[in-house]
Amino acid sequence: MSVHVETLEKLERRITLTLPSEEIASEVNTRLKRLARTTKAAGFRPGKVPMSVVAQRYGYSVHHEVMNDKVGAVFSDAVTQAKLRVAGAPRITEKEGAPAGQMTFDATFEVYPEIELGDLAQTSVERISTEVSEAAIEKTLDVLRKQRRTFAQRAAAEPALLGDRVTIDFEGKIDGVAFNGGTAQGFQFTIGEGQMLEQFDAAVRGMKTGDSKTFPLQFPADYRGKDVAGKEADFLVTLKKIEQQQLPEINEAFAKALDIKDGSVQGLRADVRRNLEREVKFRIAARNKASVMDALVGVAQLDVPVALVKGEVERLVDGARADLKKRGVKDAETAPIPAEAFEPQAQRRVRLWLVVGELVRSHNLQAKPEQLQAHIEEMSQSYEKPAEVMRWYLSDRKRMAEIEAVVVENNVATFVLGKARVTDKVVPFDELMAS
Fold it and tell me: Could you give the CA distance from residue 155 to residue 164 in angstroms, rounded to a whole number?
């Protein structure tokens, strides 16, 4: 079969496909006969329905199905012979004026681009590192202590202090009118932990059990409650109870409560360090990988297939709808979501995917079995039962595909960092963990 490929614009190509009409008719007839064996119709026994009835009922859909299958097969053979890598689905249109006994179609499609990666040696990439210090370990231990703290009621004469848990009644009004969410009884929060707006938190601090207080509060312009955002309210607060937090000591009993194997404080600190170093390693890898990906997007030269961008936009829109539905938004499936808003993100994703794919192919950066195993083992150490986590990953192809994608990206990052002009930067632990 001779295949003529017509170049239209940039990545767009066109091929003319030819099919014998008799081949289509024969396949339609074969499939209708197959359907006739099980077709049921009033007045006829199963399998005895006349072909004319079967054809009237199913002829159009069967013909459409056969056309899709046959044209698809011919198109696949043609692009294989022409050694083309097709990006996205082809657009098939039937041509008029075909020779007798034949049907002809134009298949218009895009191909994957040629990619010029540029000189990686001239590419600048920032690589960060972070040290797990003793201060970081102490801060983590404080968090663990707070997770296991208890509270004891303060005496009535004692004021509410930073770290105390208070129980209050409150009523808020704007221009003398109560508003939704502005009133509560028996409400609890811990002072200084960001559960309330700073003005509210500060107003309650220093009050004693039984005290009542009125104070103004300015809601931020970007406050999540749109009805009150940017407005000033007056709050009346009555303090019902104050409880002082009591943190457990860091001792052997505390270590045993956290299932430290040897039950020692030294073992606890070592376990905290291992967990922090593992988390820091993953976060650093993610940050460095993002720097590499930014550099690759900037250095690569290529045309991006429109079909792939369109497909990515559709996936992003579907993801946005799923997120709206998850958050309980009414009519999320039909909510107006402008597809064009996702165009830049989709363009970047497709561009990066193509560049990474080219690097992987040209430099053999595929994920190796031992890399997949090592990555899963390392991730599983963050859980109470690592062996079960490993089985959970290894038993599911989709989860393994996600792991493979991460390992491939890590391989690409390592390769690029080995070629590029790297600037090293030390990032404070708190900054890394907050990002």
Answer: 12
DSSP 79-124: HHHTT--EEEEEEEEEPSSPPTTEEEEEEEEEEPPP-B---GGG-E
The CATH superfamily label for domain 5-111 reads Trigger factor ribosome-binding domain (3.30.70.1050)
Nearest residue to 180 via CA among 227, 220, 147:
227
pLDDT of residue 2: 62
Q: Which residues pair with 165 in a beta bridge?
A: 190, 243
- Nearest Cα to Cα of residue 262 among 405, 100, 270: 270
Question: Could you tell me where the beta strands, DSSP code E, fall in 202-345?
Answer: 212-218, 232-246
pLDDT tens by residue, 338-392: 889 999 999 999 999 999 999 999 999 999 999 999 999 988 988 878 899 999 9
Place of tokens 């905290």: 272
418: exposed, middle or buried (C-beta count within 10 Å: 0-12, 13-18, 19+)? exposed
Would the CA dihedral through 287, 293, 295, 298 be positive or negative? negative
Domain map (residue ranges) of the chain: 5-111, 150-246, 266-434
Closest of 114, 130, 194, 187 to residue 162, by C-alpha: 194
